[in-house]
Protein backbone atom coordinates (compact mmCIF):
# COMPACT_ATOMS: atom_id res chain seq x y z
CA UNK A 1 0.00 0.00 0.00
CA UNK A 2 2.88 2.39 0.75
CA UNK A 3 4.38 1.70 -2.68
CA UNK A 4 1.04 2.29 -4.42
CA UNK A 5 0.43 5.42 -2.37
CA UNK A 6 3.87 6.81 -3.24
CA UNK A 7 3.33 6.05 -6.92
CA UNK A 8 -0.09 7.73 -7.02
CA UNK A 9 0.98 10.92 -5.26
CA UNK A 10 4.68 11.17 -6.17
CA UNK A 11 4.93 9.77 -9.72
CA UNK A 12 1.45 9.70 -11.27
CA UNK A 13 0.99 13.52 -11.17
CA UNK A 14 4.04 14.03 -13.39
CA UNK A 15 2.85 11.37 -15.83
CA UNK A 16 -0.46 13.22 -16.08
CA UNK A 17 1.28 16.57 -16.50
CA UNK A 18 3.58 15.24 -19.24
CA UNK A 19 0.68 13.73 -21.19
CA UNK A 20 -1.34 16.91 -20.63
CA UNK A 21 1.32 19.19 -22.13
CA UNK A 22 2.79 16.96 -24.83
CA UNK A 23 -0.58 15.52 -25.83
CA UNK A 24 -2.12 18.97 -26.21
CA UNK A 25 0.82 20.10 -28.34
CA UNK A 26 0.68 16.97 -30.51
CA UNK A 27 -3.06 17.28 -31.06
CA UNK A 28 -2.77 20.94 -32.01
CA UNK A 29 0.03 20.08 -34.44
CA UNK A 30 -1.58 17.02 -36.05
CA UNK A 31 -5.37 17.36 -35.63
CA UNK A 32 -6.27 21.03 -35.64
CA UNK A 33 -9.67 20.33 -37.19
CA UNK A 34 -10.64 18.46 -34.01
CA UNK A 35 -9.48 21.37 -31.81
CA UNK A 36 -12.96 22.54 -30.94
CA UNK A 37 -16.05 21.97 -28.89
CA UNK A 38 -18.68 20.53 -31.22
CA UNK A 39 -21.79 22.70 -31.25
CA UNK A 40 -25.35 21.38 -30.85
CA UNK A 41 -26.85 24.75 -30.03
CA UNK A 42 -29.76 24.35 -32.47
CA UNK A 43 -31.30 21.76 -30.14
CA UNK A 44 -32.69 22.64 -26.69
CA UNK A 45 -31.19 26.11 -26.78
CA UNK A 46 -32.69 27.19 -23.45
CA UNK A 47 -31.29 24.25 -21.52
CA UNK A 48 -27.93 24.64 -23.27
CA UNK A 49 -27.74 28.36 -22.44
CA UNK A 50 -28.54 27.88 -18.75
CA UNK A 51 -26.38 24.79 -18.38
CA UNK A 52 -23.38 26.22 -20.23
CA UNK A 53 -23.41 29.57 -18.43
CA UNK A 54 -23.78 28.03 -14.97
CA UNK A 55 -21.17 25.37 -15.65
CA UNK A 56 -18.54 27.72 -17.04
CA UNK A 57 -19.06 30.34 -14.33
CA UNK A 58 -18.75 27.71 -11.61
CA UNK A 59 -15.83 25.79 -13.09
CA UNK A 60 -13.74 28.92 -13.71
CA UNK A 61 -14.24 30.07 -10.11
CA UNK A 62 -13.34 26.61 -8.81
CA UNK A 63 -10.27 26.33 -11.04
CA UNK A 64 -8.77 29.66 -10.04
CA UNK A 65 -9.90 29.18 -6.43
CA UNK A 66 -8.01 25.89 -6.22
CA UNK A 67 -5.05 27.34 -8.14
CA UNK A 68 -4.46 30.37 -5.93
CA UNK A 69 -5.97 28.99 -2.74
CA UNK A 70 -3.85 25.85 -2.62
CA UNK A 71 -0.65 27.08 -4.26
CA UNK A 72 -0.29 30.30 -2.27
CA UNK A 73 2.10 29.70 0.66
CA UNK A 74 0.61 30.25 4.09
CA UNK A 75 3.16 32.92 5.08
CA UNK A 76 1.93 35.23 2.30
CA UNK A 77 -1.60 35.61 3.64
CA UNK A 78 -1.16 34.82 7.35
CA UNK A 79 -0.85 38.54 8.18
CA UNK A 80 -4.24 39.26 6.59
CA UNK A 81 -6.27 36.15 7.35
CA UNK A 82 -5.76 33.13 9.57
CA UNK A 83 -5.74 29.56 8.27
CA UNK A 84 -9.10 28.89 9.95
CA UNK A 85 -10.68 31.95 8.34
CA UNK A 86 -9.25 30.98 4.96
CA UNK A 87 -10.67 27.50 5.40
CA UNK A 88 -14.13 28.90 6.17
CA UNK A 89 -14.04 31.24 3.15
CA UNK A 90 -12.95 28.34 0.95
CA UNK A 91 -15.80 26.15 2.17
CA UNK A 92 -18.47 28.82 1.63
CA UNK A 93 -17.20 30.20 -1.68
CA UNK A 94 -16.25 26.77 -3.01
CA UNK A 95 -19.58 25.31 -1.93
CA UNK A 96 -21.58 28.00 -3.74
CA UNK A 97 -19.45 27.78 -6.90
CA UNK A 98 -19.52 23.98 -6.77
CA UNK A 99 -23.30 23.92 -6.49
CA UNK A 100 -23.66 26.35 -9.42
CA UNK A 101 -21.27 24.25 -11.49
CA UNK A 102 -23.06 21.03 -10.49
CA UNK A 103 -26.47 22.38 -11.59
CA UNK A 104 -25.06 23.57 -14.92
CA UNK A 105 -23.20 20.33 -15.62
CA UNK A 106 -26.26 18.25 -14.67
CA UNK A 107 -28.33 20.23 -17.20
CA UNK A 108 -25.71 19.67 -19.90
CA UNK A 109 -25.41 15.97 -19.08
CA UNK A 110 -29.19 15.49 -19.01
CA UNK A 111 -29.52 17.27 -22.35
CA UNK A 112 -26.84 15.15 -24.00
CA UNK A 113 -28.09 11.82 -22.64
CA UNK A 114 -31.87 12.13 -22.80
CA UNK A 115 -32.24 13.94 -26.13
CA UNK A 116 -32.04 11.25 -28.81
CA UNK A 117 -30.77 13.54 -31.55
CA UNK A 118 -28.02 15.03 -29.41
CA UNK A 119 -27.01 11.65 -28.02
CA UNK A 120 -26.72 10.09 -31.49
CA UNK A 121 -24.47 12.90 -32.73
CA UNK A 122 -22.30 12.99 -29.59
CA UNK A 123 -18.88 11.41 -29.43
CA UNK A 124 -18.28 8.83 -26.74
CA UNK A 125 -15.48 10.96 -25.32
CA UNK A 126 -17.95 13.86 -24.93
CA UNK A 127 -20.20 11.80 -22.70
CA UNK A 128 -17.28 10.23 -20.87
CA UNK A 129 -15.63 13.53 -19.94
CA UNK A 130 -18.94 15.05 -18.83
CA UNK A 131 -19.61 12.06 -16.58
CA UNK A 132 -16.08 12.19 -15.15
CA UNK A 133 -16.43 15.91 -14.42
CA UNK A 134 -19.82 15.27 -12.80
CA UNK A 135 -18.35 12.56 -10.55
CA UNK A 136 -15.46 14.88 -9.68
CA UNK A 137 -17.91 17.59 -8.65
CA UNK A 138 -19.90 15.13 -6.52
CA UNK A 139 -16.73 14.01 -4.74
CA UNK A 140 -15.66 17.63 -4.28
CA UNK A 141 -19.01 18.59 -2.78
CA UNK A 142 -18.84 15.55 -0.50
CA UNK A 143 -15.66 16.98 1.07
CA UNK A 144 -17.48 20.12 2.29
CA UNK A 145 -18.78 18.68 5.61
CA UNK A 146 -15.29 17.44 6.51
CA UNK A 147 -13.75 20.75 5.37
CA UNK A 148 -16.22 22.66 7.54
CA UNK A 149 -15.30 20.44 10.46
CA UNK A 150 -11.63 21.30 9.85
CA UNK A 151 -12.24 25.03 10.29
CA UNK A 152 -11.38 24.82 13.98
CA UNK A 153 -8.26 22.77 13.16
CA UNK A 154 -7.11 23.50 9.56
CA UNK A 155 -4.11 21.19 9.65
CA UNK A 156 -5.56 18.94 6.92
CA UNK A 157 -5.90 21.90 4.57
CA UNK A 158 -2.35 23.02 5.31
CA UNK A 159 -1.01 19.51 4.72
CA UNK A 160 -2.73 19.24 1.34
CA UNK A 161 -1.58 22.74 0.37
CA UNK A 162 2.01 21.89 1.34
CA UNK A 163 1.83 18.70 -0.71
CA UNK A 164 0.55 20.53 -3.81
CA UNK A 165 3.14 23.29 -3.44
CA UNK A 166 5.86 20.64 -3.16
CA UNK A 167 4.45 18.99 -6.28
CA UNK A 168 4.85 22.22 -8.23
CA UNK A 169 8.40 22.63 -6.92
CA UNK A 170 9.24 19.03 -7.95
CA UNK A 171 9.64 18.01 -4.33
CA UNK A 172 6.43 16.07 -3.53
CA UNK A 173 5.92 14.39 -0.19
CA UNK A 174 3.22 11.72 -0.39
CA UNK A 175 3.33 11.24 3.37
CA UNK A 176 1.43 14.54 3.73
CA UNK A 177 -1.57 12.91 2.08
CA UNK A 178 -1.34 9.71 4.09
CA UNK A 179 -4.24 9.38 6.54
CA UNK A 180 -6.32 12.15 4.95
CA UNK A 181 -10.01 11.28 4.42
CA UNK A 182 -10.59 9.08 1.38
CA UNK A 183 -12.74 11.57 -0.53
CA UNK A 184 -9.93 14.15 -0.45
CA UNK A 185 -7.55 11.58 -1.89
CA UNK A 186 -10.12 10.45 -4.48
CA UNK A 187 -10.77 14.08 -5.45
CA UNK A 188 -7.07 14.66 -6.04
CA UNK A 189 -6.58 11.38 -7.92
CA UNK A 190 -9.51 12.01 -10.26
CA UNK A 191 -8.35 15.59 -10.78
CA UNK A 192 -4.96 14.29 -11.95
CA UNK A 193 -6.71 11.81 -14.24
CA UNK A 194 -8.72 14.63 -15.85
CA UNK A 195 -5.41 16.27 -16.82
CA UNK A 196 -4.33 12.91 -18.25
CA UNK A 197 -7.47 12.65 -20.41
CA UNK A 198 -7.48 16.34 -21.35
CA UNK A 199 -5.67 16.08 -24.74
CA UNK A 200 -7.98 13.29 -25.93
CA UNK A 201 -11.26 15.07 -25.22
CA UNK A 202 -13.14 18.24 -26.14
CA UNK A 203 -11.51 19.95 -23.16
CA UNK A 204 -8.66 21.07 -25.43
CA UNK A 205 -10.83 24.04 -26.45
CA UNK A 206 -9.96 25.48 -23.02
CA UNK A 207 -6.55 26.39 -24.47
CA UNK A 208 -8.29 28.48 -27.10
CA UNK A 209 -10.28 30.26 -24.42
CA UNK A 210 -7.11 31.31 -22.63
CA UNK A 211 -5.51 32.10 -26.00
CA UNK A 212 -8.12 34.77 -26.70
CA UNK A 213 -6.57 36.84 -23.89
CA UNK A 214 -3.79 37.64 -26.38
CA UNK A 215 -6.25 39.89 -28.21
CA UNK A 216 -6.10 42.27 -25.25
CA UNK A 217 -2.47 43.09 -26.01
CA UNK A 218 -2.47 42.60 -29.78
CA UNK A 219 -1.50 45.78 -31.71
CA UNK A 220 -4.04 47.45 -33.95
CA UNK A 221 -4.15 46.36 -37.58
CA UNK A 222 -4.20 49.04 -40.26
CA UNK A 223 -6.81 48.19 -42.87
CA UNK A 224 -7.12 50.41 -45.96
CA UNK A 225 -9.64 50.12 -48.74
CA UNK A 226 -8.19 49.46 -52.17
CA UNK A 227 -9.28 52.02 -54.75
CA UNK A 228 -9.48 51.22 -58.44
CA UNK A 229 -8.83 54.01 -60.90
CA UNK A 230 -11.77 53.40 -63.23
CA UNK A 231 -13.04 56.17 -65.52
CA UNK A 232 -16.57 57.34 -64.79
CA UNK A 233 -17.83 56.18 -68.21
CA UNK A 234 -16.32 52.72 -67.89
CA UNK A 235 -17.70 49.83 -65.89
CA UNK A 236 -15.81 46.92 -64.40
CA UNK A 237 -16.06 43.65 -66.36
CA UNK A 238 -18.34 41.06 -64.93
CA UNK A 239 -17.07 37.63 -63.93
CA UNK A 240 -17.21 35.27 -66.87
CA UNK A 241 -17.33 37.98 -69.54
What does this structure look like?
The chain has helices at residues 2-30, 45-71, 74-77, 83-114, 116-120, 124-142, 144-149, 155-168, 182-197, 205-211. It has 10 helices and no strands. The protein has a single domain (2-8, 46-208), classed as Up-down Bundle (Fumarate Reductase Cytochrome B subunit). 66% of the residues lie in helices and 0% in strands. The model has no long low-confidence stretch (mean pLDDT 85). It is mainly alpha-helical and 241 residues long. The longest helix is centred in the middle third of the chain and has 32 residues, at 83-114. α1 runs parallel beside α9, α4 (83-114) packs antiparallel against α6 (124-142) and α6 (124-142) packs antiparallel against α9 (182-197).
